[in-house]
Amino acid sequence: MSGSLEQTSLESGEDIQPQKRLLSFLFRNKSIPIPTDEERKPYPFQDANIINRALFYWATPVMNVGYRRTLQPNDLFYLPENMKIEYNTSLFNENLAAELEYSHVKHIQKKCRERNETIATSSVSEEEDLKDFKMTAFNILFALFVTFRSDVLYTLMFAVISTTAMACSPFVTKSLISYVEDRGLGSDIHAGKGVGLAIGVTVMALTGGTNLAYLQFIMQSCGTKVKSILTSLILEKSFILTAEARHKFPASKITSLMSTDLSRVERAFVLTPHLSTLPIPIVISIALLVVNIGVAGVIGVVIFLAFLFAITFSTTQLYKYRKIVSSMTDERVRLIREILNNLKVIKFYSWEVPYLSSVVRARSKEISIIMRIQSLRNVVDAVSMSLTNVTAMISFLALYGLEGTVRNAAAMFSSVTSFDVLSFGIYMIPLALSTSADLLNGLKRIADFLSAPELEVNERYVKISDKTNPNSLEIRNAKFDWEVFDVEEVAEKPPKKSKNILKRSKKNSEESLEKPLEKSQSIDNKSFPGLLDINLIIKKGEFVVITGSIGSGKSSLLSAIGGTMNIEEGTIEINGTLTNCGAPWILNATIKDNILFGTPYDKQRYDSVIYACALQNDLDNLEGGDMTEVGEKGITLSGGQKARINLARAVYADNDIILMDDVLSAVDVNVGKHVVNSCLLDLLKDKTRVLATHQLSLIGSADRIIYLNGDGTIEVGKRDELSVRCSGFRKLMAFSTAEKNDEEEEVIPVEEEIDVSDQLIERFVGSKSSDPNSQMTQRRNGISVKNIKEDAEENYKDVTMGKDASKGKLIKKEERAVNRIKNEVYYNLIKFGSGKINPYIIAFAIILLLTLAIFSNIFSNTWLSFWISRKFTDKPDSFYVGIYILLNLIGVVFLTGLFTLLATVTTTSSKNMILLAINKVLHTPMSYLDVTPMGRILNRFTKDTDVLDNEIVENLKSVLYIGGEIVGILILLIIYLPWFALAIPVIAVIFIAIASYYQASNREIKRLEAVQRSFVYDNFNETLTGMATIKAYGKQKMFIDRQNKYMNSTNEASFLVFATQRWLTVHLEILADLIIFIVSLFCVRQVFKISPATAGLLVSYSLSIAGALAQVIRTFAMFENDMNSTERVCHYALKLEQEAPYTIEDKKPKSDWPQHGGIKFDNVSMNYRPGLPLVLKQLAFDVKPGEKIGICGRTGAGKSSIMTVLYRICELESGKILIDDVDISSIGLNDLRSKLSIIPQDPVLFNGTIRNNLDPFGENEDDKLWDALRRSGLITKEELKSIEKNVKPDQVNSEDDQKLHKFHLDQIVEEEGANFSLGERQLIAFGRALVRDTKILILDEATSSVDYETDSKIQNTIATEFKDCTILCIAHRLKTIINYDKILTMHRGELAEFDTPWKLFNLEGGIFQEMCEKSSITAEDFLHKY
């Protein structure tokens, strides 16, 4: 079965794949069905008997299945309640609370002592004393110890037994060698004693090995539980962070905590416990050394202590480097998250190469520190592994210097074994200290996060449930403001600008749907002042519209009502349940799941909501209906569809008060009217509705209007009242001619709602006696009156009828290879790390250095046996001493060289593979992101990257060195004991059988774990991005429970991985002990007349092979699991689906192309992915150079798809597109996209400054950027000079000094532009387009979230600044486009109408005419009547 990722995937439950293994013939039942959920068995470890526990036989049922076929998730054991994350987290929280309470007391006592007071006589309150208290890593560590104290104590017990057995083995070895020596001298010793000693050596080894295996299993399981607990706590904490804490810990940093830091914490739990028991073997070994070689043994111990001191010092350096690299990893993860979140915009602006350069810089800095860490570790590891021979050499030379000779074989080789035990201690110390440093560093970062400020209940904000109270909400004398705090971190800027630090207002960032810092555009008012002196009463059932100019605080008022904006004065009382429906956030699930959002399903209510929110036609057009998956962030939906699903979710929640933030800006006029009439004025007629909007046509439908003056105050009243007393409101209304005197007649009375559908159809289609020319126009384009009539919503239609849920499947299962890692993956690991050198030369160099290092190591002790037995009688001691020293020293040199080469190759390979992978992601089609969750991709650049950077080289070093040592020892045994060669085939068969049986299951369980882990990352990432919506609906528990469910599933695999690893260890330990027994028997029986020195040599090496045999397979399994990460990254780096070529050198257009800007669509058809229906069908039209084309049509008609094909985000199914007679499919994507400018429907801002967002890579002068801000309407010409002279942040000396203007180039932009309103983000995106200065400009609902006055200014800017440009403008506001040169009307992916606005306005029965009627547009609104 191939392991290629291209040929395999995560099989479904029905896809059983039998496997042909080495020992398959021993298993009769080849086909085993996959158990159902009810048939699954519980995790049996706790109920297993002592034999099954000791030998890990309880894991064999799963291993048997895995040997016969590919394992599936349901084949694994399910976890009992006391092993689930919920149980352990609850226990840990109790222990952490107790620990923190104790620490609080100690902290208060300390503060009191500083004031010469006691707690009883303290003059300061406890709350005041605790203000500077911070949770520490040791608080968490102690709580973890208490939580898992039984596991820890069991571990210590097994560790004591294991290390004691290991430390005492030299004593038994000495007795065995002495026995051989006595028999060689002719002593009459009973043979039974020799056999007993052989058995004793074997039992000692078996005891040490099996206990070590058991303690590792317990601590690995414990580490996984700890990781799960802390992941859950991090997610829970994320929901309650204040604005300042959210800024300090953005999503990228939280993701880094959950992935990188917790992975290191988990790994540390395996090695850290060894620190507590290492003194036992060290003390026993020192005692034996003193007995064996006297003072020379003490000298050896001093050498060990010297090395220990050096290693400890190195560990402190590693800790410092690890802290540095952690911050660099955070920056890299932030960049990659930004790329993944905004990849479509990056493609629109052709920023792939500059973004790749940013990642290259971040990755290069990270790798430079990792290389320092690796270099230091290489020296430490090489010295540690050679320490036995080096210290033994120094001690024996000291013994020779003191006594003039060496001692007998028993004393010398038992000393070698003691040094080996000491070496184990010294080798484990740096590993344990290093991982302990990682543990403390990780826990410190987590403690900082868990100590971050939390949201507190504001007593001024009160929720009640009083049915007798006629009011839904009351605000009295209230003042609201956003939190203010220091901003200390700014994203990387172009080289010409330095980083700035400033103090500024910040929105409550956990609510990304809010837009704080809104303000009137005045130089005297540079930041949003908050909401001042607010007095407002809204009665039950009222429909209130909030309006005002852009940035005046409409969203802030909704946030204040919703309780997410600070109330500093006054009170607010909410009577009933409340839903805040803000910016659309779409869950990566089905449409139905998005609407229900965890609320129980009620078919009648659900169908009513679907109808009221105008979703029936959308669902009719989908084969999967409401079971259609929508992708991450609703990537497959249009802006209007997202808005209506978002609204449907809020309506279905069925709360008493519903706050809506511009929910209709992205829908067309027909759909908007339907939503208003059927949803806002009918289905929600008994609810209290508060709507913030720029859609002034809704004002006539409102009971009252709230107008924001822009200075923090509001005016409340009916339209006529506000028109009289509020000049700002009159000015705002003057810019909208959409409102007519008969506006109120546009609203269909509620009592007539039963006829709404027919009326809408009639209004949309027009009279039956329509102009025949109109009919001809529609038929010619494939659009009939019948087609249009079908678009009307029908009352309570069953949206599930005739739908196939399987057709709605979008997200692909993650790639999962099966069986062994392919050779090409190993080759790629070397190739990417070898640079210009041939990979085979690198491989040869590795093998050569390994051979020389192993030979030097083994032959140094062989030479010692020569010296002891005086093998060459004619040679002086200096001959033996010189060669002995040489062999030991060159062994260290060769081993250091080997480790350095391995670290260089793997680290360089990691760097190159990750950069190539991110480059491939930058150039992958958007269709790949449609079906791939971002968390899955992010997993490659967090967990898998950490494996490549840190874990893979450590396991590779162990595999090669230990494997080479085993081969060398076996050769040595055969040379001295030729009969042992007869046992080699038997041992080899048993070894291969054990390894084959183990690998078949362990490999697949580990891969299942990796796939399940992706779900953990997906949900974690999605929860962070949708936190505002989740909190608005009170669904925190639902998402935390989902996270726990995914972690439990992952742990089912993790625990079984650990069990199978220990199963291997125990069984190979038994095999190795068989080798020890055979060798020991040969020695005591003096087969082949071996000398005592040779016996000592062979027994000492056979003892080392016991641990090595199990360790090499276990480490190889870990290495192969690490190679799974390599395989996954390689798949992205080499095999990820790619867009068309970025550049085509021989097809590059002229540098000034397009000179004119003419566009021709020639029978264009397109679908988003193969197998999906066409979204554009035979689209054909010509746009002359410099023409301004307005594109309109019903939501989901295919308007934005025109932009998609123009940018080649999706390639055409048929037809072609020409720009200035150049077929855009024939040129590189960069040459095309860099010549176009777009303001997309969802404006994207990047973390950094406004300058970064206008010109991310420093390609333009500031004058051009300032001018773009002016032309986009963000600042006026009069303001410009004053703003340019604005005080820079680094010149601010006090908090009262002047701050930057809100739209200063150096003003901070938070992640995703969270500190600007949606309208402001659209204007900044407009300024970005002005900077690009291209011949073709595309506006996709670019002004949907700005007020009519600002829209008017933008249209004037377009008319003047882009008068020579070709413009394609998608708009639902018809006022925006009625004076363009032509109008293109879309319907179901087809061109319905295409002519001048005036002609289409007069086309009887036409779609555009009907839309104009619904928008109350009359002939007087047209400037051009031709």
Describe this structure in words.
The protein is α/β, with parallel strands linked by helices. Among the domains are: 1-75, no CATH class; 134-452 and 826-975 and 1007-1135, ABC transporter type 1, transmembrane domain (ABC transporter transmembrane region fold, Up-down Bundle); 1247-1332, no CATH class. 56% of the residues lie in helices and 9% in strands. A six-stranded mixed beta sheet has the order 8-9-10-6-11-12, with helices on both faces. Strands 18-21-22-15-23-24 form a six-stranded mixed beta sheet, with helices on both faces. Helix 6 (149-184) packs across helix 37 (1092-1135). The longest helix is centred in the first third of the chain and has 52 residues, at 352-403.
What's the SSE blueprint?
Layout: H1 50-55, H2 60-68, H3 85-114, H4 126-129, H5 137-147, H6 149-184, H7 191-238, H8 243-248, H9 251-271, H10 274-277, H11 279-293, H12 295-341, H13 343-348, H14 352-403, H15 409-450, E1 461-464, E2 471-481, E3 484-487, E4 502-505, E5 531-539, E6 543-548, H16 554-562, E7 566-575, E8 578-581, H17 591-596, H18 603-612, H19 616-620, H20 639-652, E9 657-661, H21 669-683, E10 688-692, E11 704-708, E12 714-717, H22 719-725, H23 727-734, H24 743-746, H25 756-765, H26 772-780, H27 785-789, H28 823-833, H29 839-869, H30 877-922, H31 926-931, H32 934-940, H33 943-976, H34 980-1025, H35 1027-1032, H36 1036-1084, H37 1092-1135, E13 1159-1166, E14 1176-1183, E15 1188-1193, H38 1199-1206, E16 1214-1219, E17 1222-1223, H39 1229-1233, E18 1236-1239, E19 1248-1249, H40 1250-1254, H41 1262-1271, H42 1277-1284, E20 1308-1309, H43 1318-1332, E21 1336-1340, H44 1348-1361, E22 1366-1370, E23 1382-1387, E24 1390-1395, H45 1397-1401, H46 1407-1414
Parallel strand pairs: 1-7, 6-10, 6-11, 8-9, 9-10, 15-22, 15-23, 18-21, 21-22
Antiparallel strand pairs: 2-5, 2-7, 3-4, 11-12, 13-14, 13-16, 16-17, 19-20, 23-24
Helix pairs in contact: 2-34, 3-5, 3-7, 5-15, 6-7, 6-11, 6-15, 6-37, 7-9, 7-36, 9-12, 9-15, 11-12, 11-15, 12-14, 12-15, 14-15, 14-30, 15-37, 18-21, 28-30, 28-37, 29-30, 29-33, 29-37, 30-33, 30-37, 32-34, 33-37, 34-36, 34-37, 36-37, 41-43
